[in-house]
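Suppose you are handed a protein chain with no further information: no name, no annotation, nothing but its sequence. What can you learn? This example shows the usual starting point.
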Amino acid sequence: MVKASLLKRILAFLIDYVVVVACIMVGMLIAFGGSMVITVLAAAIKMGFLAVLALPIMILGWAVAVICSVGYMLIKDGLFGGRSLGKKLLGMKVVTKEGKACDYKKSLFRNIVYVIPLMMFVELIMLFVDKDGERFGDKIAGTQVVE
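A reasonable first move is to predict its three-dimensional structure. Written in structure tokens, the prediction is:
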């Protein structure tokens, strides 16, 4: 197994980040679009009391955004047999030190560091300075990215 190049790993991360942004956008569309439609509809049919439904719809949209985006970031490397969408598109795979495909549990351990603010930048620096080209998440989960 050949370790994946740094450039391909960064590009895969950017593709995965687009998925996260899409999750957030869908949630915001539900939150703001849905609440706006309810409010306008309530005013149009002169039943203003229906406008109270706008808040639960907004909360639902926020929940979709958070659960979808954070959930994807945490389990993405357990999808498609150790491939996030970005890694799958670029022909890479996350494997354990024994060579087995990354599962959801390893993916969670591998990506939990992203929950810590600014850790994404530390992880990027680790790719450059670590002698094995591993980030903290790889070390915690016992994984590596291969082509």
